[in-house]
Fold this protein.
Amino acid sequence: MIGLFLITHTSYGESLIQCACHVLNRRPPQIVQLGVAAQDDPLDVLPLAQNLLQLVDSGEGVLVMTDIYGATPANIAMKLLEPGRIEGIAGVNLPMLLRALTYRDKDMDTLLARATTGGRDGILNMLKH
């Protein structure tokens, strides 16, 4: 199973995980989060991120999801990525997380594709749908 690691601003990642737990009626295995606060030094946070990454890496890889590309959480995530093994997606939302939880028993390419489309397709104008 591919591990999931959310690196986000403050408590956003934990909130997403709690919402996923509510939808699934259980806490999924192999998922961790790291909330980065405004006062956190990215160089101090990086070793913690590396340790958390190891907690969810069972050898099949890890998908790192972050909220805003270019922001501090994403910059920390970029330092962890290894193509094909540790992949990253920015713009995490609940539909993306649920899709990632559903497809993480597949290969990394499938997981990346499904999580990305799940996040994008979860955004719609409700009155026009």
